[in-house]
Amino acid sequence: MHKNPTLLVLAAGMATRYGSLKQLDGFGPNGETIIEYSVHDAVKAGFGKVVFVVREEILADFTAAMQGRLPDSVEVDYVAQELDMLPAGYKVPAGRTKPWGTGHAVWVASAKINEPFAVINADDFYGYASFKLAADFLKSSSDDSESGLVGFELANTLSEHGSVSRGICAFDEAQTLLSLTELTKIVRTDSGDILVQDEEVQHTHLDGKEVVSMNLMAFKPTVFPYFEKYLKEFLSRNQHELKAEFYLPTVVNEMIAAGETSVKVMQTPEKWFGVTYPEDKATAIQRIDDLIKGNSYPKNLQSLTGPEDIETTAHKAQDIQEIVSHFAIQGHTAGGTPYGSGHIHDTYYIKNLQADCPDYLLQRINHQVFKNVPLLMENIEQVTAHLRSKLENIPGAEPDKEVLTLVPTRHQASYYQDEAGNFWRLYLLLQGTRSYDLVESPQQAYEGGKAFGRFQALLADMDASLLHESIPDFHNVEHRLRQFTQAIKHNQKDRVKHVQPEIDFVMQRAQLMSTICRLGREGKLPLRITHNDTKFNNVLLDSQDKAQCVIDLDTVMPGYVAYDYGDAIRTTAATAAEDEKDLSKIDIDLNLFRGFTQGFLEETCASLTDEEIGSLSLGITLLPFIMGLRFLTDYIDGDHYYKIHFPEHNLQRAQAQFRLVEVLEDKLELLQGIIEEISAACHQATTKQTK
C-alpha cells in the first residue's frame, strides 16, 4: 500500500503553435495557470509532492512564477530538461536543437522521484476525478510492475481551432491496455464528424467514443530503468536524426510488448481542455469560469493554504524526558545525552535512574530521508520478530542480546509522533557492547563477516515481498548517477567548478559500475533480503570482541548480496576512516579482507549461487564508488543530506572514497583470487558436513 504519490508535471514544451509560454499563461480570474488548478486537484486527490520538468532557459522564470502560488502543504521540486542530459556514452547529434520528447522528460525526472507517481502535461486541464483515479490506483496497487492510464473519451479532448494528436487505447475486457496507437491530425469538421487527416490514414472516421491517452499515466519508480533502456535503444537508432522524438506512449508500448508492465485503463468522466492554439485561450478561460460558478473551485485559489511546514528543532533535556514518557519503559529516566556518530538520525542515551532497570537509546528518525516512517518501522518490526523467532530455536543463542529490541509506546505502537511532526523510537540499550569505525584485528573482521553473513542467512527463509523499500534505489548506481547529473546541472551553490577532477572520475567509471544493475535486470542475480548498510560500526561486539548484534536496520530490504559484501569491505578492510583527509593513508588491508571474507562466506556460501559469488568482486569497487558519488552529489547540492562537521566535509569524504576505489581497482585480481579460494574451501567443508 503506497501513500502520498508524486505528481510529475511536464512543463518543458516549446509552445510553438501557441506563440508564448502557455505553461505560465493566466486563465483564472486572478491569473491562475492551468498548472495551479491541476496541483489543487492533485493535492485534494491525495498527492503529496510535485516535480516540474522545465527547460533550462525558462527555469528561473518558471520557479519565480510558481513562487507562492502553490499550496503550502505540497513539496515542490524542479528538474531542468536539456538536450545533453543523456545516459553515459551518448552524445547530442551535431545540429540538433529539438527537445527529445516526453519519454526523455520522464527519464530526466527520475533523479527526483523515489515514490509512485503520475505524469501530466502542464498545459492540459484534467479535472479532479482524473487525479482521484490516479491517486487511488497508486495508493492501492501493490504490484510494482502494474501501471495505470487515465483515459478520456476522444470527443471530450478535441480543439475547435485545429488538429490534435491523440493516443488511441486498445484494451481488453479487464481494462488492461494492449497498445497505444498515436494518431495525428485529428479534427472535428463543421458537420461534427471526427476525421484523421494524416497522410497515411487519410479521412479515417472516428466516432468520438474512443478512449484516448492525454499523458495522465501512473507509474511505480521501478519503471525508470526501462525508460533508460528504451531511451538508449532510441538514441542508438537515431544517432544522426535531428528531429526524432522519444515519446512516453512509445515507452509504454515497448514495456507492454516485453511483458515488463501491465497497464490498467481507468476511464474518467471529466472533459479535458487545453491550449494548443492561441484561439483556445478564450475557451479555457470560459471553462474555468463555468467551473468556478459551479463551485468546483474558489474564485481565488490562493485563499487555500496548507498546514505549516514542520520545523525540526534541537531538543532540550525536558523535551527528551517528555518524549520518553510516551514509551512503556521500566523504571525512571531523566533527560538524555547525544550518542553515537551516525549521519542520519539524532540519537540520545537515556540513563535509567533505577539500577535494576535497563537503559535506552532514543532516536529521532530523519523523515526527510525516510519519507514513510510507518512503513520503515513495520519493516523493522517484521525483521526483528523473524530474527528472534529463528534464534529462539537455535541452542545456545541469546535473542535478547543478538537482536535489537524495540520498546513500544504506551499505546503499543513502534514509534511516537510528537506535536511538531517528528517521529521517535526507543530501543533497549545493549549493555557491554562496543563498535569500531576502524577494524583493529583480523579476528574482528572475521567476526564482522560472520555477523552480517549470519544475519543474511537467518533471513533467507523470510518472504522478501513482506518488506517495503525504505529508500527506493538506495544502492542503485544508475539512479545515483542520474541524481549526480541533476546536481551538476543545477549547480545550486556554484561548486561544480571546484570538483571537475572528481566529476571526471565518476563519468569514466559510470558504465562499468552499472554492471550489477544490469545483471539483476537480466535475472542473473537474485534479490535477497539484505542489510544494505553493512558498515563495520553497524555490528556490536561484546567485551571479547565477538560479534553480538547487527544494528541500524533502517535499510533492510530486498537487495543484491554484493551490496552487503562490498559495503562491509569498504569499512572493514580499508586502512582509514571514510572521511580520511590524508589520501596516502588509504589502502586495503589484505589480512582484514581475508578475515571478513572468511567469516561471511562460512555463513552464506551454502545459499549463494555461483553468479552471486562471482559478483562479490564487483561489489568491492561499486560500494565505495556509490558512497563517494553520494557524498559528492550532496556537496554539489549544498550539503542537505549528510550531517557535516566543517564546510568541505562531504567533499573530503568523496575524495577518500574515490581513492579507495582506485586502490581496490589496482588489487582487484588479487582480491578475486582470495574470494574464489575461500569460497571453494567453504563449499568443500559444507559438502563434508552433509555426507
From TrEMBL:
Keywords (A to Z) from UniProt: Transferase
Domain Aminoglycoside phosphotransferase: 337-571
Keyword Methyltransferase: no
SUPFAM superfamilies: Nucleotide-diphospho-sugar transferases, Protein kinase-like (PK-like)
Coiled coil: none
Highest taxon, organism lineage: Bacteria
TM spans (from-to): none
Pfam families membership: APH (PF01636)
GO molecular function term, any single one: transferase activity
Protein name, as recorded: Phosphotransferase family enzyme
Organism in which the protein naturally occurs: Pontibacter virosus
